């Protein structure tokens, strides 16, 4: 049994809590948050606290707070020589106070308050300062059914950058698709199967091989026609930049496309 | 039974052929292509031809050739008063020669030669010149298990534009994610669950609600750190433009982010 104290009440903390709850080999002995109210609804199921001085003993302390608060919170912990990890994609492991054994437990997934997650599908990137603590973090990942990946800080930060492209930026393209549909009273829902297939396809082939469409075909007529159709300057700039990027990737001559 | 003649040998034609083959209410009476070789491997299963003069009679002629060739091919057809449709997202219906009954049968999906498609998930956008032909096209869509959507030319072209954003451009973001991973020897596969979840999430909530990440949080520190991490100028430009777009969508002050 791995005992855990959770610190923080955001999306990651909440999803971790739910995943731990389902696991038979993890026990959440306590949940800390600066403001009690955010986690008080869980008070029947787990010991909650807003005081660091009241923190119980556990095998792992998981700091799942905003990036800016991680370092300070790790220094404020009133104990030493225990295992303390953060869950951030971009904060360095060394930002954690070294009075404790430090590490990173980064679930590579997008967490929203309301969307349920199949946690066993989430890759967990783990990192430790002292090698002997690696097994504990790997076991914690496996205890919630996840595949642990041992990576370096640099790899994690690179992965987080790549994640911003494939997740946040992709979602913004969905948003733009939604906006464009709305201008002509088209239900965005019609695009759902296409969006799903686009995401599925790259599990069978590389994104390079999966590319299709006017930019990939260097179909200047269609590109010109589509640029004319675009109503927002912001969308036009994104269209031009990403079409040029596709052409570059596929070695197509990329003379600038102008809107008439 | 709806009888069909297919014209063209690209990805759309091939996927349509396979979908029709599975249907009990559609019969492909002939498959035409300019060059016989591209479809000769199907010669045992269907009558193939490279001569327009040999075209057989059918309820619907489906022109699934490149956008630039649609108009000419429709004029070259040696008959009149039959139902002729194209499958393009962006070509106007009126580009088809009006000696025949014209329409559009646009499957809104991304088709690659090698990726298998669950055709019943594909929305089919239909359009007709004369109202009385609408039922036939809708029936054809239903015959392959698809949902038909009656839309106008303007709506179809808008939908095609939105599709370029959510499919081609999204796929290019996957490609960039892949490139970024490779620079640090990270397997792109680790991002697959995140990519799939990002696509799934917007079936439960709007892309607006689904947004997360540093730009959405207006987390300037992380954005700055990530811009430093980016090695390619092209990726930097895309990062800046899409981060700014997210901030604009979510009404965050958007002072330009500079790379140090």
From TrEMBL, chains A, B:
**Protein name, per record:** DUF2520 domain-containing protein
Signal peptide (UniProt feature, chain positions):
none
Q: Where is the Pyrroline-5-carboxylate reductase catalytic N-terminal domain?
A: 4-85
Q: Which InterPro entries match?
A: 6-PGluconate_DH-like_C_sf, DUF2520, NAD(P)-bd_dom_sf, P5C_Rdtase_cat_N, TM1727-like_C_sf
- A Pfam match is F420_oxidored
Q: In what residue span(s) does the DUF2520 domain sit? A: 122-245
**Gene3D superfamilies to which the protein is assigned, alphabetical:** NAD(P)-binding Rossmann-like Domain, ProC-like, C-terminal domain
């Amino acid at each position: 049994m791995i005992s855990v104290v959770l610190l923080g009440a955001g999306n990651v903390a909440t999803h971790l809590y739910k995943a731990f709850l389902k696991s038979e080999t993890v026990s959440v002995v306590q949940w800390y948050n600066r403001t009690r109210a955010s986690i008080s609804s869980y008070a029947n199921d787990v010991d909650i606290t807003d005081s660091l001085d009241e923190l119980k003993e556990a095998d792992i302390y998981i700091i799942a707070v905003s990036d800016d608060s991680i370092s300070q919170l790790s220094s404020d912990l009133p104990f030493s020589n225990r295992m303390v990890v953060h869950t951030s994609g971009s904060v360095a492991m060394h930002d954690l106070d070294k009075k404790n054994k430090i590490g990173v437990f980064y679930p590579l997934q997008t967490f929203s308050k309301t969307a349920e997650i199949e946690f066993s599908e989430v890759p967990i990137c783990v990192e430790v300062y002292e090698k002997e603590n690696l097994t504990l973090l790997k076991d914690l990942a496996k205890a919630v059914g996840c595949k642990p990946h041992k990576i370096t800080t640099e790899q994690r930060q690179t992965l987080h950058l790549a994640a911003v492209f494939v997740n946040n930026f992709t979602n913004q393209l969905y948003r733009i698709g939604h906006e464009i549909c709305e201008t002509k009273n088209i239900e965005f829902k019609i695009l759902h199967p296409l969006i799903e297939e686009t995401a599925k396809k790259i599990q069978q082939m590389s994104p390079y091989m999966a590319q299709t469409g006017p930019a990939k075909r260097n179909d200047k007529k269609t590109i010109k026609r589509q640029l004319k159709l675009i109503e927002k300057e912001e969308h036009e700039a994104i269209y031009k930049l990403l079409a040029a990027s596709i052409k570059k990737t596929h070695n197509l001559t990329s003379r600038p496309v102008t809107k008439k």
